[in-house]
C-alpha cells in the first residue's frame, strides 16, 4: 500500500499543492474591474464624474497628519552660500538605513569640483582638500575624516565634537555650525 501511494498518488498531490500555492501568490485578490466599488453617497447625489469620486475616495482614506515640525516657508527655501575656498565645512550627518552610505560615497567620489577628493584604490577614506590647499578639508564625513566623532554620531554629538576634531586635524574650520 505504501509503495503504491508513493508511486501513483504522491506526484498528483504534490502538483496540486504546488498549483494552490502558486495561485495564492500570483492571482490578484480582486482582479481589475471585477471588484465592486460603491461611490460615496455624496458623489452619487451630486452626479460627480468617476475621476472626482476616485479623488474623494483617496482623500477619505489618507490619514490626516499634523505638522510635527512646522517650518516657515522662508526657512525651507533659504539659500545658503558655501565658500569652499574659505573656512566653511560641510558636516555630513549619517543616518542609518536611509541611503547615507551611498550618498556619502557620492560626495567624495562623484561630485565635479575644481579640486575633487583624492581617493586611493582600496581605501575607504578620501582626502577632500580645499582648492589651493593641501591640509584643510571642506567635508567632515566618514569617507573623508573617518568616524571622528564615533560610529553614527547624532546631531548633538556632532555639534559638540566637530570643532574639536577639526582643530585636532589642524583645520581652522568655521565656528558657525549650520
Automatic annotation (TrEMBL):
Biased composition (Low complexity): 35-45
Protein EC: 2.8.2.-
A single GO cellular-component term on record: membrane
Localization per Swiss-Prot or TrEMBL: Membrane
Membrane topology note: Single-pass type II membrane protein
Annotated catalysed reactions: alpha-D-glucosaminyl-[heparan sulfate](n) + 3'-phosphoadenylyl sulfate = 6-sulfo-alpha-D-glucosaminyl-[heparan sulfate](n) + adenosine 3',5'-bisphosphate + H(+)
Alphabetically ordered keywords of this record: Glycoprotein, Membrane, Signal, Signal-anchor, Transferase, Transmembrane, Transmembrane helix
Gene3D superfamilies with a match to the protein in the record: P-loop containing nucleotide triphosphate hydrolases (3.40.50.300)
Signal sequence bounds: 1-28
InterPro entries, per database record: Heparan_SO4-6-sulfoTrfase, P-loop_NTPase, Sulfotransferase
Enzyme's top EC category: transferase
GO molecular function: heparan sulfate 6-sulfotransferase activity
Disordered: annotated segments: 35-61
Function, in words: 6-O-sulfation enzyme which catalyzes the transfer of sulfate from 3'-phosphoadenosine 5'-phosphosulfate (PAPS) to position 6 of the N-sulfoglucosamine residue (GlcNS) of heparan sulfate.
Family according to the record: Belongs to the sulfotransferase 6 family.
Stated name of the protein: Heparan-sulfate 6-O-sulfotransferase
Species this protein is from: Poecile atricapillus (Black-capped chickadee)
Gene: Hs6st3
Amino acid at each position: 500500500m505504501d509503495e503504491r501511494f508513493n508511486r501513483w498518488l504522491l506526484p498528483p498531490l504534490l502538483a496540486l499543492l504546488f498549483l494552490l500555492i502558486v495561485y495564492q501568490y500570483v492571482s490578484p485578490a480582486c482582479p481589475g474591474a471585477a471588484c465592486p466599488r460603491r461611490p460615496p453617497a455624496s458623489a452619487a447625489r451630486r452626479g460627480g464624474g468617476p475621476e472626482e469620486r476616485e479623488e474623494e475616495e483617496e482623500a477619505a482614506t489618507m490619514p490626516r497628519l499634523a505638522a510635527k515640525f512646522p517650518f516657515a516657508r522662508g526657512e525651507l527655501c533659504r539659500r545658503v552660500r558655501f565658500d569652499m575656498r574659505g573656512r566653511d565645512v560641510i558636516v555630513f550627518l549619517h543616518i542609518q538605513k536611509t541611503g547615507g552610505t551611498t550618498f556619502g560615497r557620492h560626495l567624495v567620489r562623484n561630485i565635479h569640483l575644481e579640486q575633487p577628493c583624492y581617493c586611493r584604490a582600496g581605501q575607504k577614506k578620501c582626502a577632500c582638500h580645499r582648492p589651493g590647499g593641501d591640509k584643510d578639508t571642506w567635508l567632515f564625513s566618514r569617507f573623508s575624516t573617518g568616524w571622528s566623532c564615533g560610529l553614527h554620531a547624532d546631531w548633538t554629538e556632532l555639534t559638540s565634537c566637530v570643532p574639536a576634531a577639526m582643530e585636532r586635524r589642524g583645520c581652522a574650520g568655521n565656528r558657525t555650525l549650520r
